[in-house]
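User: Here's a protein and a ligand (S-adenosylmethionine). What would the complex look like?
Assistant: Let me lay out the input and then the predicted complex.
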Amino acid sequence: MAFFNKNNIQLYESNFSDSYDYLYSWNERFNRERYFFEKLFKKYKTETILDCGSGNGFHVNLFLSFKGIKRVAGIEVSSLMIKKAMKNLNKADHEKVRFYKGDLTDVAKILKKADKFDMITCMYCISTALKGDAVITRVLKDLKKHLNKGGVLLIDDVNFDRIIEKELTSEVVTMDSDSYHFLQFRNFSIKVYKTLPFPILFTNGGKSKKTFIHIASKYLFAWLKNKHRAIRIYHQIKSNLVLDYIFVLSGFIRWINVQTYRESLWILKKEKLRKYLLQSGFTSFRFYSGYKFAAFNTNDFNMVVIAKV
Ligand SMILES: C[S@@+](CC[C@H](N)C(=O)[O-])C[C@H]1O[C@@H](n2cnc3c(N)ncnc32)[C@H](O)[C@@H]1O
């Protein structure tokens, strides 16, 4: 894990693409996001969608679970992820879907001028795929050209304000945690939370050099039993937030059994994103926290923005 590679393309072309399957409870994610998209699709009369960084096809499938969605395209740089996405697709949906293998920075070359969509989604994609002010602004401008009149751009990402401002170390303020107990393992400290809604919340050693791992009690047993266990650790290196994934493959936490991956994320705080959107010609946008349309809040887990031209 010593390397620091700004470009995550190799990461998703490695066996990390398999490990990615263990990062989420996909059913839980589906249920969490479905209501949100249902409301959006209704409001914006969405029929066609472009999903940037479409990964294993989770959102493509989620979108196609709505009757009104007629066509979905994905842009994805990793052939391994596209392979997964194709496998995860229902046969009946094949004709409605097209995956473009390519780098999002080349979107202007990948799509034809006439390819337009009612919605363009970037789910946990901008910060990993695009690095630097100029690139982000250019790509947002390019994406804008592929929106139908009245179409919307949806960006969902980590809430960088929370992580950076709060120097997230052992803090779990947003996770309505009401009780926990401690397990201590050498340099790890594991806190178990009764009401944490996510299986594991990453965390970092911060100044104390100790790694804190947060896990919800209802997931603990599965986590201990599971063949693969993933831990996420964030720390900052220059203008990137570095995200180390630690997968514990067998036994308890022993480095010998650990597989690690490093992803670097361009720090996309709310104000920065607002500037990028303005510079790219989006005139109206709303920032939310999570998928219930609650106003953006620095304390929440993710940042969602809906932008219109
Ligand atoms: C964090 S994953 C998110 C996947 C999916 N959107 C989700 O929410 O689960 C980021 C995805 O973006 C893809 N990606 C990374 N860099 C990219 C680039 N430059 N162009 C297109 N896709 C890229 C990765 O291969 C990966 O599948």
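Summary: Residues 8-9, 12, 53-55, 58-59, 75-78, 81, 103-105, 123-125, 128-129 surround S-adenosylmethionine (CB under 6 Å).
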